[in-house]
Amino acid sequence: xxxxxxxxxxxxxxxxxxxxxxxxxxxxxxxxxxxxxxxxxxxxxxxxxxxxxxxxxxxxxxxxxxxxxxxxxxxxxxxxxxxxxxxxxxxxxxxxxxxxxxxxxxxxxxxxxxxxxxxxxxxxxxxxxxxxxxxxxxxxxxxxxxxxxxxxxxxxxxxxxxxxxxxxxxxxxxxxxxxxxxxxxxxxxxxxxxxxxxxxxxxxxxxxxxxxxxxxxxxxxxxxxxxxxxxxxxxxxx
Length: 238
Ligand SMILES: N#Cc1c(-c2ccc3ccn(Cc4ccc(CN5CCCCC5)cc4)c3c2)n[nH]c1N
Known about the structure:
alpha/beta
């Protein structure tokens, strides 16, 4: 899968993609990330990318021309790609949308604005407008990284452990169970006995109960379409 990122801060993207899961996927050749500086698609000596908003108002707005020139440059190879604009006004990005992007797109262009946003006319050239959550960021770059990371985790072979992506809690519809590792006793804080028992059936049941308990407490909205078994466990918790 190929990601192409349009931004005025390429270093934000370049710094992150070298590490962790993404770094491994890049080294394996499973993923390619190319970052383009929008300032390279300007036509003035000052590489201007923003201007005052028509109609007045606070802040600056990013001009359409650099976005248009960059998008036309990418489209010159006539390969299919999904163009995604990051924006506070976008549709909510979820695990389901990450799965859809992974399944449907061989290449994605992630368009990152800054300032108070970008000229509305850019939207004529994009396929999706996406927001990663109900809070205001300073630009689209962090959102682009969230999308890249969550989509790459879903690509077969990217994690090196097929179970990890499938086991990711949002794939199952509820939150994760608690995790513990050595030492067994840290200043009197002990690992739950069941996890030391070696009884995999008991451990699995304990983990399911804990996951449902966490979900009931922090994200009851996720508790939909539970299996009869999960519903039985949940009723025991109430
Ligand atoms: N994805 C994503 C994002 C973004 C995001 C994405 C892309 C850009 C480009 C520029 N900014 C900064 C900015 C900041 C303030 C305002 C004004 N608005 C007034 C009314 C309410 C909302 C904000 C606009 C744009 C961006 C922010 N924020 N949150 C997400 N989940």
